[in-house]
Write a structure and sequence with these properties.
elongated; 2 helices; single chain; mainly alpha; 57 residues
Length: 57
Amino acid sequence: MSAHEKAKAKTEQAKGKTKEALGTAAGNDRMAAEGRREQSKGDAREAKEKAKDTFKH
């Protein structure tokens, strides 16, 4: 996994988790949903990179 893509995935996951927590605490369902979406995007990016690494070796 390239270090840049790995860092990008982790950043998206952390940002999404924070946004979801803030949205939930504030009662803002839209913000919480955006946070979950960002986390999913980070998870997908991480999975894609891991799959690429698996096929490279």
